[in-house]
């Protein structure tokens, strides 16, 4: 406790409170001052709570503090009884309650300030479930939840930016470093310019280098365009393959089915979807909404202790037992008359459960089929990326084997040609080596002649220029060929797309008719759904009215039952009082003295007499004291004066003894001097 008070005093003496407390002054604070200090600390965390508690009622102060402590997730120690004591101590300003709260708040002020700020926007308003049935209220509630989620995300991004953001000093250092690098680069450029100016024909060489750089950039952009065209071609082929697969499936469906079977499949799918939309999904949504409502209500409540859980478990057991008893009574009451209806109800419940199970199995099968289709599509995409193709049929495999045999024959012939070319390549390589040696010797002779004539480097520069021009011409030829190939490829793709469009035209026409039929069926379904919704709304209104009436009757029944119990208790108490009065009357009228003594009247009479005698004795004693009071006071004063006199004499005697001892010491000192 001492360490806790020490921490509280240290925190209060610092910013932003600037109190001048010590342990003694803090411990001597009144309850009202402690409450005001707690309110000031809460006001520092949340400015709305910076109020003077003298201007509001104690109940309002306690409620305000308890609400903010609940938002800040403060957990008081102890069980349920301790929680009630905590509330009472907060109202009365008890030190045992306020000191731990102050210690907890002052240790995490910054964190709690952020939590209080977020609570203004993230504490969700509880909307009753019956209000959420209104579409307008539901839309506003959904918009409110979306805004809350957006605020959460923005706050997280803000915190991350605050943590990961660069400071101004770092930015300035980066700018200064970049400026230094800029100056160094400018100096290097100047030095290179000076070095280049000494070279002959430097302007032409710079122009050639610039053109080379531009051509390289153009080459890179063309390569990038080529890559983009390849990717577009690949995606186009994939779309084409998917369209072909869909075409095959639709042709297969058209070939193997009739309009009656298609309509039957559509009706089955519509029935299944209507069952999902009208029965299963609304039921699941209601259950989810109910569970979410209870979870939100549970989150909004304060933290529960083990004692709360035990009490809730016992209450749940009691309610379960009561429900079982009511169910047994209902079965006993309605079993003879409703045996047939109960059998039909059981059959209907079994069929509905089977229907739900089959719907779930069908939904799972559809999800599995869609996932398998996605996997097949991914595998086909991977096969195309690796240069592969789709899975071959038997005829396609035979064609593939025949093509493979012809390619094997061609491969053998080409291998013989490669062997001949390899032998010729060896001869040419040797010839190239001899020519390179001669070229080196000639080059050395040429350099020697250039040095003699004073034009060294002329041949090298001329060769470089010729090489650059040759490279440029080759690149122009390659670019022209690439553009021609790309234009031809685009023409082929356009032709293929036109062919596919022409082949898909009749299928699209049939599909339009089917779509028109589907739209008519959908419109009919919407009309029936509107009729169903109106009927359901009327029934829901009647049901809610009946529920309200039943609720009112149940409340009236509970009120009458409580009145009956109250009257019954009053009756029992009056009967007990009447019985006591009869016994008292019987004892008072009884001729026996022992019985009379037991009577309450006799007991109270005897007590009254005793008290009267005691009062007489006390009054006599008071009279004697009054008569002797003056004399006694005079005597007491005389004794006090006598005591003072004796004390004065004692002091005088002590002073005389001290003076005599000092005189004797002086005389002995004089005698010693005389002897010396």
TrEMBL record:
Protein name: Intraflagellar transport protein 81 homolog
Lineage: Eukaryota, Metazoa, Chordata, Craniata, Vertebrata
Localization in the cell: Cytoplasm, Cytoskeleton, Cilium basal body
Record keywords, A-Z: Acetylation, Cell projection, Cilium, Cilium biogenesis/degradation, Coiled coil, Cytoplasm, Cytoskeleton, Differentiation, Phosphoprotein, Spermatogenesis
Coiled coil regions, renumbered to chain: 137-253, 309-382, 483-563
Domain IFT81 calponin homology: 3-126
Similarity section: Belongs to the IFT81 family.
Gene: Ift81
Biological processes per GO annotation: cell differentiation; cilium assembly; intraciliary transport; spermatogenesis
Entry superkingdom: Eukaryota
């Amino acid at each position: 406790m001492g360490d806790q008070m020490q921490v509280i005093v240290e925190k209060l003496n610092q910013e932003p409170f600037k109190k001048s407390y010590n342990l003694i002054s803090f411990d001597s604070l009144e309850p009202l001052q402690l409450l005001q200090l707690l309110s000031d600390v809460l006001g520092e965390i949340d400015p709305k709570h910076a109020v003077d508690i003298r201007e509001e009622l104690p109940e309002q102060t306690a409620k305000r503090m308890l609400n903010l402590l609940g938002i800040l997730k403060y957990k008081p120690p102890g069980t349920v009884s301790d929680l009630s004591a905590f509330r009472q101590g907060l109202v009365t300003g008890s030190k045992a309650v306020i000191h731990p709260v102050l210690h907890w708040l002052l240790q995490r002020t910054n964190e709690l300030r952020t939590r209080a700020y977020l609570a203004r926007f993230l504490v969700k308003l509880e909307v009753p479930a019956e209000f959420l049935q209104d579409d307008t209220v539901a839309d506003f509630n959904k918009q409110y939840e979306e805004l809350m989620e957006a605020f959460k995300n923005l706050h997280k991004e803000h915190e991350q930016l605050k943590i990961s953001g660069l400071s101004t000093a770092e930015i300035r250092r980066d700018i200064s470093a970049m400026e230094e690098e800029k100056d160094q680069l400018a100096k290097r450029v100047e030095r290179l310019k000076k070095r280049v100016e000494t070279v002959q024909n430097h302007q032409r060489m710079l122009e050639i280098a610039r053109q080379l750089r531009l051509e390289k950039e153009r080459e890179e952009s063309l390569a990038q365009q080529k890559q983009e065209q390849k990717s577009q071609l690949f995606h186009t082929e994939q779309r084409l393959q998917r369209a072909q697969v869909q075409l095959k499936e639709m042709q297969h469906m058209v070939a193997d089915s009739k309009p009656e079977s298609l309509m039957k499949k559509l009706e089955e799918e519509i029935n299944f979807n209507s069952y999902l939309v009208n029965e299963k999904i609304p039921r699941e949504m209601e259950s989810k909404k109910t569970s979410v409502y209870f979870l939100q209500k549970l989150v909004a409540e304060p933290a529960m202790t083990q004692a709360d859980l035990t009490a809730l478990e016992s209450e749940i057991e009691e309610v379960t037992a009561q429900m079982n008893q009511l169910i047994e009574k209902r079965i006993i009451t309605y079993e003879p008359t409703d045996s047939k209806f109960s059998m039909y109800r059981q059959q209907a419940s079994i069929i509905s459960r089977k229907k739900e199970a089959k719907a779930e199995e069908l939904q799972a099968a559809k999800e599995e089929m869609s996932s398998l289709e996605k996997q097949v599509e991914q595998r086909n995409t991977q096969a195309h990326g690796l240069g592969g193709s789709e899975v071959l049929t038997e005829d396609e495999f035979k064609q593939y084997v025949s093509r493979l045999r012809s390619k094997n024959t061609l491969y053998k012939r080409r291998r013989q040609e490669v062997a001949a070319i390899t032998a010729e390549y060896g001869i040419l390589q040797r010839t190239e080596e001899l020519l390179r040696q001669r070229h080196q010797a000639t080059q050395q002779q040429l350099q020697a002649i250039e040095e003699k004539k004073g034009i060294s480097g002329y041949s090298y520069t001329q060769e470089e220029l010729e090489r650059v021009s040759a490279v440029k011409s080759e690149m122009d030829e390659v670019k022209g060929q690439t553009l021609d190939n790309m234009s031809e490829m685009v023409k082929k793709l356009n032709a293929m797309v036109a062919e596919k469009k022409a082949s898909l035209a009749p299928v699209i026409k049939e599909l339009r008719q089917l779509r028109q039929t589907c739209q008519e069926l959908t419109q009919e379904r919407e009309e029936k759904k509107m009729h169903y919704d109106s009927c359901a709304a009327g029934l829901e209104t009647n049901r809610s009215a009946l529920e309200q009436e039943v609720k009112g009757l149940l409340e009236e029944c509970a009120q009458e039952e409580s009145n009956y119990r109250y009257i019954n208790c009053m009756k029992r108490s009056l009967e007990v009082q009447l019985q006591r009065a009869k016994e008292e009357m019987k004892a008072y009228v009884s001729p026996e003295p022992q019985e009379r003594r037991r009577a309450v009247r006799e007991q109270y009479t005897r007590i009254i007499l005793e008290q009267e005698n005691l009062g007489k004795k006390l009054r006599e004693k008071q009279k004697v004291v009054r008569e002797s009071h003056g004399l006694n006071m005079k005597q007491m004063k005389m004794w006090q004066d006598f005591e003072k006199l004796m004390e004065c004499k004692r002091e005088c005697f002590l002073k005389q003894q001290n003076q005599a001892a000092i005189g004797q010491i002086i005389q002995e000192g004089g005698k010693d001097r005389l002897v010396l």
